[in-house]
Specification:
This protein is mainly beta and about 325 residues long. The chain contains three helices and 14 strands.
Amino acid sequence: MRNRLTRMLVAGAMSAVAAGAVFAKPQAADPGAGAAGAGAFAPVNLTMQPEPESVYAPPAPPREDEGVNEGGVHLVLDISYFTDYVFRGIELFEPPGHEDRANLQINGKLSFDLGKVPHPFVGAFVNSAEADPISTFQEIRPYVGFDWNLRPLLLTAGYASYIYPDRDPLETQEIFGRIELDDSYFLRSERPLLSPYVFAAYDLDLYNGWYLEAGVGHDFEVEDTGLTIRAEGHVAYVYRHELFDLVPADEEEESGFQHYQVGLIGRYSLNNLFNVSRRYGEWGFVGYLYYTDSIDDDLRADDQLWGGAGINFRY
Protein backbone atom coordinates (compact mmCIF):
# COMPACT_ATOMS: atom_id res chain seq x y z
CA MET A 1 0.00 0.00 0.00
CA ARG A 2 2.89 2.29 0.75
CA ASN A 3 4.28 1.67 -2.75
CA ARG A 4 0.92 2.47 -4.28
CA LEU A 5 0.76 5.79 -2.36
CA THR A 6 4.28 6.65 -3.48
CA ARG A 7 3.42 5.95 -7.10
CA MET A 8 0.31 8.21 -6.83
CA LEU A 9 2.34 11.11 -5.41
CA VAL A 10 4.96 10.80 -8.15
CA ALA A 11 2.28 10.70 -10.85
CA GLY A 12 0.58 13.81 -9.41
CA ALA A 13 3.85 15.73 -9.36
CA MET A 14 4.60 14.80 -12.97
CA SER A 15 1.10 15.96 -13.99
CA ALA A 16 1.59 19.34 -12.30
CA VAL A 17 4.92 19.81 -14.08
CA ALA A 18 3.35 18.99 -17.43
CA ALA A 19 0.46 21.39 -16.81
CA GLY A 20 2.90 24.18 -15.93
CA ALA A 21 4.81 23.56 -19.10
CA VAL A 22 1.64 23.91 -21.12
CA PHE A 23 0.68 27.25 -19.56
CA ALA A 24 4.22 28.60 -19.84
CA LYS A 25 4.58 27.52 -23.45
CA PRO A 26 6.58 30.12 -25.38
CA GLN A 27 4.82 32.05 -28.16
CA ALA A 28 5.84 31.37 -31.72
CA ALA A 29 8.72 33.61 -32.64
CA ASP A 30 8.18 36.35 -35.22
CA PRO A 31 9.70 35.07 -38.49
CA GLY A 32 11.28 38.44 -39.01
CA ALA A 33 12.59 38.83 -35.51
CA GLY A 34 15.71 36.74 -36.05
CA ALA A 35 17.46 34.53 -33.55
CA ALA A 36 17.24 37.10 -30.77
CA GLY A 37 13.44 36.89 -30.78
CA ALA A 38 13.27 33.10 -30.76
CA GLY A 39 11.86 31.69 -27.59
CA ALA A 40 10.88 35.10 -26.16
CA PHE A 41 7.74 35.19 -24.11
CA ALA A 42 5.08 37.64 -25.28
CA PRO A 43 3.32 39.63 -22.55
CA VAL A 44 -0.11 38.32 -21.71
CA ASN A 45 -2.88 40.83 -22.57
CA LEU A 46 -5.52 40.28 -19.94
CA THR A 47 -8.08 42.73 -21.45
CA MET A 48 -9.41 43.75 -24.86
CA GLN A 49 -9.83 47.43 -23.80
CA PRO A 50 -7.36 49.95 -25.33
CA GLU A 51 -4.97 51.64 -22.98
CA PRO A 52 -6.36 54.97 -21.70
CA GLU A 53 -4.93 58.12 -23.32
CA SER A 54 -2.93 60.57 -21.22
CA VAL A 55 -4.79 63.61 -19.96
CA TYR A 56 -1.73 65.73 -20.85
CA ALA A 57 -1.39 67.13 -24.38
CA PRO A 58 1.73 66.13 -26.29
CA PRO A 59 4.43 68.82 -26.39
CA ALA A 60 3.73 71.32 -29.18
CA PRO A 61 6.45 72.38 -31.62
CA PRO A 62 7.83 75.90 -31.02
CA ARG A 63 5.93 78.68 -32.79
CA GLU A 64 7.61 81.05 -35.23
CA ASP A 65 6.70 84.02 -33.04
CA GLU A 66 7.81 82.45 -29.76
CA GLY A 67 9.64 84.92 -27.60
CA VAL A 68 8.13 87.99 -29.34
CA ASN A 69 6.36 90.62 -27.23
CA GLU A 70 2.88 89.24 -26.59
CA GLY A 71 1.89 91.86 -24.03
CA GLY A 72 -0.62 94.67 -24.33
CA VAL A 73 1.74 97.43 -25.53
CA HIS A 74 3.58 97.38 -28.87
CA LEU A 75 6.06 99.77 -30.44
CA VAL A 76 7.03 100.36 -34.07
CA LEU A 77 9.91 102.74 -34.80
CA ASP A 78 11.37 103.70 -38.19
CA ILE A 79 14.48 105.88 -38.55
CA SER A 80 15.46 106.54 -42.17
CA TYR A 81 17.28 108.89 -44.52
CA PHE A 82 15.59 109.77 -47.82
CA THR A 83 16.81 111.65 -50.87
CA ASP A 84 13.55 113.64 -50.99
CA TYR A 85 10.46 114.24 -48.90
CA VAL A 86 7.55 113.28 -51.17
CA PHE A 87 4.15 113.66 -49.52
CA ARG A 88 1.14 112.34 -51.42
CA GLY A 89 2.81 112.87 -54.77
CA ILE A 90 4.23 116.32 -53.97
CA GLU A 91 7.89 117.03 -53.21
CA LEU A 92 7.73 119.33 -50.22
CA PHE A 93 10.20 121.89 -48.86
CA GLU A 94 13.00 121.65 -51.43
CA PRO A 95 14.36 125.17 -51.97
CA PRO A 96 16.42 125.93 -55.10
CA GLY A 97 20.04 124.91 -54.78
CA HIS A 98 19.31 122.21 -52.21
CA GLU A 99 17.88 119.49 -54.44
CA ASP A 100 18.23 115.87 -53.33
CA ARG A 101 19.45 116.80 -49.86
CA ALA A 102 19.22 114.17 -47.16
CA ASN A 103 15.97 114.09 -45.20
CA LEU A 104 15.96 112.39 -41.82
CA GLN A 105 12.55 110.89 -41.09
CA ILE A 106 11.50 109.39 -37.76
CA ASN A 107 8.14 107.69 -37.33
CA GLY A 108 7.13 106.10 -34.02
CA LYS A 109 3.84 104.41 -33.15
CA LEU A 110 2.78 103.06 -29.75
CA SER A 111 -0.32 100.82 -29.79
CA PHE A 112 -2.31 99.12 -27.04
CA ASP A 113 -3.76 95.64 -27.59
CA LEU A 114 -7.20 95.47 -25.93
CA GLY A 115 -8.25 92.11 -27.35
CA LYS A 116 -11.34 92.05 -29.55
CA VAL A 117 -12.13 95.75 -29.18
CA PRO A 118 -10.36 98.51 -31.18
CA HIS A 119 -6.66 98.99 -30.35
CA PRO A 120 -5.86 102.68 -29.66
CA PHE A 121 -2.53 104.12 -30.77
CA VAL A 122 -0.51 107.32 -30.51
CA GLY A 123 2.40 108.32 -32.70
CA ALA A 124 4.46 111.05 -34.27
CA PHE A 125 6.22 111.64 -37.60
CA VAL A 126 9.16 114.06 -37.94
CA ASN A 127 10.97 115.18 -41.10
CA SER A 128 14.26 117.02 -40.66
CA ALA A 129 16.67 118.52 -43.21
CA GLU A 130 19.77 120.38 -42.05
CA ALA A 131 20.11 122.19 -45.37
CA ASP A 132 16.71 123.86 -45.07
CA PRO A 133 17.31 127.63 -44.72
CA ILE A 134 14.04 128.21 -42.83
CA SER A 135 13.87 125.42 -40.27
CA THR A 136 15.78 122.17 -39.74
CA PHE A 137 12.60 120.51 -38.50
CA GLN A 138 10.38 120.87 -41.53
CA GLU A 139 7.39 118.91 -40.29
CA ILE A 140 6.16 117.47 -36.98
CA ARG A 141 3.01 115.39 -37.25
CA PRO A 142 1.49 113.92 -34.08
CA TYR A 143 -1.41 111.54 -34.59
CA VAL A 144 -3.84 109.38 -32.60
CA GLY A 145 -6.35 106.73 -33.60
CA PHE A 146 -7.23 103.08 -33.41
CA ASP A 147 -6.72 99.84 -35.33
CA TRP A 148 -9.44 97.19 -35.41
CA ASN A 149 -8.95 93.70 -36.82
CA LEU A 150 -12.31 92.42 -38.08
CA ARG A 151 -10.82 89.77 -40.33
CA PRO A 152 -11.00 89.82 -43.29
CA LEU A 153 -11.22 93.62 -42.82
CA LEU A 154 -8.52 95.64 -41.07
CA LEU A 155 -9.83 99.06 -40.04
CA THR A 156 -7.89 102.18 -39.03
CA ALA A 157 -9.20 105.61 -38.13
CA GLY A 158 -7.55 108.63 -36.56
CA TYR A 159 -6.67 112.30 -36.35
CA ALA A 160 -3.43 114.04 -37.38
CA SER A 161 -2.08 117.56 -36.83
CA TYR A 162 0.46 119.02 -39.29
CA ILE A 163 2.94 121.36 -37.60
CA TYR A 164 5.49 123.24 -39.74
CA PRO A 165 7.89 125.28 -37.57
CA ASP A 166 8.29 128.83 -38.94
CA ARG A 167 5.75 128.03 -41.65
CA ASP A 168 2.58 128.76 -39.71
CA PRO A 169 0.30 129.48 -42.69
CA LEU A 170 0.64 125.84 -43.81
CA GLU A 171 -0.36 124.19 -40.54
CA THR A 172 -3.59 122.20 -40.61
CA GLN A 173 -5.42 119.16 -39.22
CA GLU A 174 -7.17 116.18 -40.75
CA ILE A 175 -9.14 113.06 -39.93
CA PHE A 176 -8.36 109.85 -41.79
CA GLY A 177 -9.54 106.29 -42.24
CA ARG A 178 -8.22 103.15 -43.91
CA ILE A 179 -9.83 99.82 -44.85
CA GLU A 180 -7.62 96.89 -45.86
CA LEU A 181 -8.83 93.52 -47.10
CA ASP A 182 -7.00 90.40 -45.91
CA ASP A 183 -7.51 88.36 -49.07
CA SER A 184 -5.87 85.27 -47.54
CA TYR A 185 -9.23 84.76 -45.81
CA PHE A 186 -10.91 84.07 -49.16
CA LEU A 187 -7.93 82.43 -50.89
CA ARG A 188 -7.39 80.13 -47.88
CA SER A 189 -3.68 80.82 -48.09
CA GLU A 190 -1.09 81.28 -45.38
CA ARG A 191 -0.23 84.85 -46.44
CA PRO A 192 -2.18 87.61 -48.20
CA LEU A 193 -1.78 87.97 -51.95
CA LEU A 194 -2.46 91.65 -52.70
CA SER A 195 -3.89 93.15 -49.47
CA PRO A 196 -5.97 95.80 -51.34
CA TYR A 197 -6.79 98.93 -49.35
CA VAL A 198 -8.61 102.25 -49.55
CA PHE A 199 -7.40 105.32 -47.63
CA ALA A 200 -9.32 108.57 -47.15
CA ALA A 201 -8.30 111.82 -45.43
CA TYR A 202 -10.38 114.96 -44.97
CA ASP A 203 -8.66 118.27 -44.21
CA LEU A 204 -10.91 120.03 -41.71
CA ASP A 205 -8.91 123.21 -41.13
CA LEU A 206 -6.94 124.88 -43.92
CA TYR A 207 -8.06 123.20 -47.15
CA ASN A 208 -11.42 121.54 -46.39
CA GLY A 209 -10.92 118.94 -49.09
CA TRP A 210 -10.61 115.19 -49.63
CA TYR A 211 -7.60 113.02 -50.48
CA LEU A 212 -8.43 109.45 -51.54
CA GLU A 213 -5.99 106.61 -52.25
CA ALA A 214 -6.33 102.97 -53.31
CA GLY A 215 -3.49 100.48 -53.58
CA VAL A 216 -2.17 96.94 -53.34
CA GLY A 217 1.01 95.28 -52.11
CA HIS A 218 2.65 91.87 -51.85
CA ASP A 219 5.53 90.51 -49.76
CA PHE A 220 8.07 88.16 -51.30
CA GLU A 221 9.99 86.24 -48.63
CA VAL A 222 13.34 84.71 -49.55
CA GLU A 223 13.39 81.59 -47.39
CA ASP A 224 16.19 81.00 -44.90
CA THR A 225 17.77 84.42 -45.59
CA GLY A 226 15.79 86.85 -43.42
CA LEU A 227 15.10 88.99 -46.52
CA THR A 228 11.62 90.21 -47.46
CA ILE A 229 10.91 92.29 -50.57
CA ARG A 230 7.63 94.15 -50.80
CA ALA A 231 6.22 95.43 -54.10
CA GLU A 232 3.45 97.99 -53.82
CA GLY A 233 1.58 100.63 -55.76
CA HIS A 234 -1.27 103.08 -55.39
CA VAL A 235 -3.27 105.71 -57.26
CA ALA A 236 -4.67 108.90 -55.69
CA TYR A 237 -7.78 111.01 -56.30
CA VAL A 238 -8.40 114.45 -54.79
CA TYR A 239 -11.70 116.27 -54.40
CA ARG A 240 -11.79 120.06 -53.96
CA HIS A 241 -8.47 120.08 -52.07
CA GLU A 242 -6.55 123.35 -52.50
CA LEU A 243 -3.16 121.83 -51.61
CA PHE A 244 -3.23 120.00 -54.95
CA ASP A 245 -4.54 122.91 -57.02
CA LEU A 246 -1.90 124.36 -59.37
CA VAL A 247 -3.59 127.77 -59.22
CA PRO A 248 -4.70 128.27 -55.59
CA ALA A 249 -6.15 131.74 -56.33
CA ASP A 250 -8.44 130.28 -58.98
CA GLU A 251 -12.05 130.13 -57.79
CA GLU A 252 -12.52 126.81 -59.58
CA GLU A 253 -11.33 124.04 -57.28
CA GLU A 254 -9.92 121.13 -59.22
CA SER A 255 -10.75 117.50 -58.60
CA GLY A 256 -9.49 114.36 -60.29
CA PHE A 257 -6.82 111.66 -60.32
CA GLN A 258 -3.73 113.37 -58.97
CA HIS A 259 -0.78 110.89 -58.99
CA TYR A 260 0.29 107.28 -58.98
CA GLN A 261 3.21 105.65 -57.22
CA VAL A 262 5.02 102.31 -57.38
CA GLY A 263 7.73 101.11 -55.05
CA LEU A 264 9.99 98.36 -53.76
CA ILE A 265 10.83 97.94 -50.09
CA GLY A 266 13.48 95.46 -48.98
CA ARG A 267 13.77 94.46 -45.32
CA TYR A 268 16.65 92.33 -44.01
CA SER A 269 16.35 90.88 -40.51
CA LEU A 270 19.22 91.96 -38.27
CA ASN A 271 18.10 89.33 -35.75
CA ASN A 272 18.92 86.73 -38.37
CA LEU A 273 22.26 88.36 -39.22
CA PHE A 274 23.54 88.69 -35.65
CA ASN A 275 21.64 85.72 -34.20
CA VAL A 276 19.75 87.94 -31.72
CA SER A 277 16.65 86.54 -30.03
CA ARG A 278 13.37 88.12 -31.07
CA ARG A 279 12.47 88.51 -27.41
CA TYR A 280 14.53 91.72 -27.57
CA GLY A 281 12.43 92.99 -30.46
CA GLU A 282 12.62 92.60 -34.22
CA TRP A 283 15.35 94.67 -35.84
CA GLY A 284 15.64 95.19 -39.57
CA PHE A 285 17.62 97.13 -42.16
CA VAL A 286 15.22 98.59 -44.72
CA GLY A 287 15.82 100.00 -48.21
CA TYR A 288 13.25 102.03 -50.18
CA LEU A 289 12.88 102.83 -53.88
CA TYR A 290 9.88 104.72 -55.29
CA TYR A 291 8.71 106.28 -58.51
CA THR A 292 5.98 108.94 -58.41
CA ASP A 293 4.29 110.61 -61.38
CA SER A 294 1.38 112.98 -61.99
CA ILE A 295 -1.84 112.00 -63.74
CA ASP A 296 -3.94 115.15 -64.25
CA ASP A 297 -1.98 118.11 -65.62
CA ASP A 298 -4.32 120.52 -63.81
CA LEU A 299 -3.38 119.11 -60.41
CA ARG A 300 -0.19 119.55 -58.43
CA ALA A 301 2.11 116.48 -58.45
CA ASP A 302 5.76 115.75 -59.21
CA ASP A 303 7.57 113.26 -61.41
CA GLN A 304 10.18 111.89 -59.05
CA LEU A 305 12.44 108.86 -58.53
CA TRP A 306 13.43 108.77 -54.88
CA GLY A 307 14.36 106.44 -52.06
CA GLY A 308 16.35 105.90 -48.93
CA ALA A 309 17.43 103.46 -46.23
CA GLY A 310 17.11 103.07 -42.49
CA ILE A 311 16.50 100.93 -39.42
CA ASN A 312 13.16 99.42 -38.40
CA PHE A 313 12.33 98.20 -34.87
CA ARG A 314 9.23 96.35 -33.71
CA TYR A 315 8.42 95.20 -30.23
